[in-house]
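Encode chain A's predicted structure.
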Amino acid sequence: MKMVDVGDKPKTERVAVAAGAVRMSAAALRVLRTGRAEKGDVLAAARIAGIMAAKRTPELIPLCHPVALSSVEVTLTLRRAHVEVRAEVKTVDRTGVEMEALAAVSAASLTVYDMLKSVDRTMVIDAVQLVHKRGGRSGDYTRA
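Encoded structure for chain A:
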């Protein structure tokens, strides 16, 4: 194993967007919509967890390069039977930020689960995936 050498690559603007979902019962969604979770503001805590995870990705994923992040935006949208979690991460650096975006979605989703597990232990974290990436040698990618 080794960390890939990116020393010769130019610094360029790079963007990655990841998404996922936390599927839950109607009762858990009701608690979320009414803001009555015992632990407090679920959506705010999940956004902060996602941002923190993006910033600390090299500590979580072996051989992942530390990247100077320009911005991290985590959004959570309430749907009929789930919460949609989305993260957009930007940098100007020598390597991409796909792992940071995926880590942000994962941590935000886990936080939603943690804060609502007293209401619904059957929640499922689902479809965590890269949606889009821009920049770098491999070019752009958008999930079909």
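Helices lie at 26-34, 42-55, 57-60, 98-116.
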